[in-house]
Design brief:
mainly alpha
Length: 214
Amino acid sequence: MSPSAQDKSPNTQAQEHARAMRALVAMRQEAQALRFQEYWEPKVVAGLTSAAKDSQALLRQALAEYPRLPAGQANAVALRLWLGSSLAAMAQDKCAQAEAALVDMAREESRTLVEIITLHGLAAPLVDMEPQARQMAGGPALSEATRRAQRDFAGKLDRLLAQAWQREANPRALSQDLAKLLVAYQNRLKAIAVTTTHAVANRLRLAVATALDN
């Protein structure tokens, strides 16, 4: 039978209390890690990869309408240039949406982590992480990675369309090639979103630890 609280020394009680607090903090940190994975990561992925889904819709519509244009308006080069510009703007917009989600994550989860570690201010003073939220989200890196992915996709798309129209490719073959290209683009955007979300999560943990040590 375990000794009663009255039989324990103050030092023993303090050690048990400290262990209980550490276990509580660890449990809440595990819950936060799960939230990063199950809530924030899918949100960022959905925001960024929607660039590929919307690109598919735009391409489908443009390529369906192009053959029906009057001969004087059917300019393949102009269409390819317009597609490149439109797809770049689309990727930029979706990147901004993903970045906004990352800023929200950095703001909300850094505040939550401060509360977890300090036991809502009981174990240590609370610190305000709000001013660091955008910096923790790391927007420029996400923008650059998305830009590279979009440029690679646009370049391959342009070559594919140029070759298809020069050779008067079978519409079915062109559709299959476009589908493969879009899947590769979506997978690359997903990898960027997942990697960036993990990096932001690690960055905010470090920022909180640094702020609480100061």
